[in-house]
């Protein structure tokens, strides 16, 4: 079973909830070769086995239903304050469906209409809906400009889906949309300005360059760390935690105790975290999920010698969005293995299939996920397992560095 999540933001770019995208197996499209009732049981069971809170944390889940799926009693296993019932766009409206949705609303569930392309006044499910979702690639914002005020007048919450650019987000927000779904938050906002690194950024870049030198110098690393009292404190605290009762007497000793590769990961995470202070919190979370996910996939694919590079590739995959510069410009200032540069800039090379698998998994493009998994010789079972573990790992890391 594949399950992925896509963040849904409010107007302040805070995560309101996650839409859960799922497929049962490689032969299925959405619900597979079983009845929708059977799919319901399998999906809900899977969510409970893995822990719904592990996927959506303290947010609310948007889960797709069709006209058969909605009649399953398994729906009620998830509490109304943790789930929004999302009705698929091609649903067949019937009296039974209307009655079921009325009962569900009476239980406290909210209802969303997915990929809405109907007429608000005449569509039978509109009065029951709390949220109207517009796929702005299918129904562009200009085309629905007249429908938006009508939806707002009826008290509906409007959600813009497939928002891919900052400009689309700003436009939808100005029109009256209050929820937004898409990967616009992970794209750079390039305004034609040249890239000028801050002192903090320069320090991180110097550290990364030294780490990836042919012969890294612990003396040089220690000198760079000593320039920042906060960084020094963080390093000594990390080393002391690892050492237990053993005394950590110097920065050089802390570095040797932690090890170069572990220090590289740690300093890279700190860099991403510190540089993304004015960005949506979901961006740093996405970066951390990707670094762990990429590392796990490289291991599954037998790329043992590339695990560390895969992890760094995943972590740095949002640097362009954090610094609002093209990826080639951002990475030009850092000495990195060629495999990472090839994947993130040229979309090629040994690591690119792993990066592509991550991107397609996030979007729920299951056919491409299956194709990439076959190419990498990774069993499908492990992909969801590693994705779920990456989410948990990212949450713990954020808790330790926030």
TrEMBL record:
Residue span, HDOD domain: 197-382
InterPro entries: dGMP_Pdiesterase_EAL/HD-GYP (IPR014408), EAL_dom (IPR001633), EAL_sf (IPR035919), HDOD (IPR013976), RNase_Y/CdgJ (IPR052340)
One Pfam short name: HDOD
Entry-linked Gene3D superfamilies: EAL domain, Hypothetical protein af1432
Domain EAL: 1-202
PROSITE patterns: EAL (PS50883), HDOD (PS51833)
Superkingdom of this protein's organism: Bacteria
Protein name: EAL domain-containing protein
Lineage: Bacteria, Bacillati, Bacillota, Clostridia, Eubacteriales
